[in-house]
Amino acid sequence: MLFSERAKKIVSRIPKGSVLTYKEVARLAGNPKASRAVGTIMSNNRDINVPCHRVIRSDGRAGGYNKDGSRQKIARLREEGVFL
Question: Does residue 84 have a pLDDT over 90?
Fold first, then answer.
């Protein structure tokens, strides 16, 4: 399985109300130094079954979001009970 497929599979399993960092996703997908790659994969994600809004930066900030920017990402997380 490709790294991108593993990363998407991991993100698809993040439960509502929870988050992982890009670094955590990279580590779980088998390459702990590939957090930037995870960011790229998430920025190109168009699959509604991959909740890329649940992946945040290691410093606790939202980071980018491919659907209407970080404000929308923060709003979606707040709807799920996550406050950054």
Answer: no
Helix (H, G, I), strand (E, B) or coil at 81: coil
The continuous run of DSSP H or E covering 28 comes out as helix 22-28
Please tell me whether residue 56 adopts helix, strand or coil conformation. Answer: strand
Q: Which of 11, 52, 62, 77 is catalytic?
A: 52
Amino acid (one-letter) located at 70: S
* Statement: the pTM of the whole predicted model exceeds 0.90: yes
For the domain made up of 3-79, the CATH class stated in words is mainly alpha
Domain ranges of the chain: 3-79
Is 63 one of the annotated active-site residues of the chain? no
Residue 9: CB atoms within 10 Å:
13
pLDDT at 81 over 80: yes
